[in-house]
Amino acid sequence: MTNLVLIQARMGSSRLPGKVLKDLHGRPVLGWVVRAAKAVPGVDRVAVATSDGAGDDAIAEWCANEGVSCHRGSENDVLDRFAVAVRAEQATAVMRLTADCPFLDPKVCGDVLALLLRSDAEYTCNVDPPTWPDGLDCEAMTATALLAAADEASEPFDREHVTAFIRANRHRFVAGNVTCPVPDLQDRHWTLDTQGDYEFILLVAEHLDDDGPPSYLDVLDASDRYAAVNGRATGPLSGKGPWDRKLESREAHYDASQALFKRAGKVIPLASQTFSKSHIQYPQGQAPLFLSHGRGGRVWDVDGNEFVDMVGGLLPIVLGYNDPDVDGAIRQQLNRGITFSLACELETELAERLVEIIPCAEMVRFGKNGSDATSAAIRIARAATGRDHVAVCGYHGWQDWYIGSTTRNKGVPKATRAMTHPFPFNDLDALHALFREHDGGIAAVIMEPMNVAEPDDGYFEDVRKLAHDKGALFIFDEIITGFRYALGGAQELFGVTPDLATFGKAMGNGMPVSAVVGRADLMAEMEEIFFSSTFGGEALSLAAAIATIDKMRREPVIETLWRSGSTLKEGVEKRIGEHGLADSLSVCGKPPWTLLAIGDHPEAGKDAIRTLFIGEMLNAGILIQGSHNLSYAHEDHDLAAVLAGYDRALARIAEEIKRGDVDRRLGDTIIRPVFSVR
Question: What is the extent of the structural domain holding 651?
Answer without folding.
Answer: 249-309+558-669
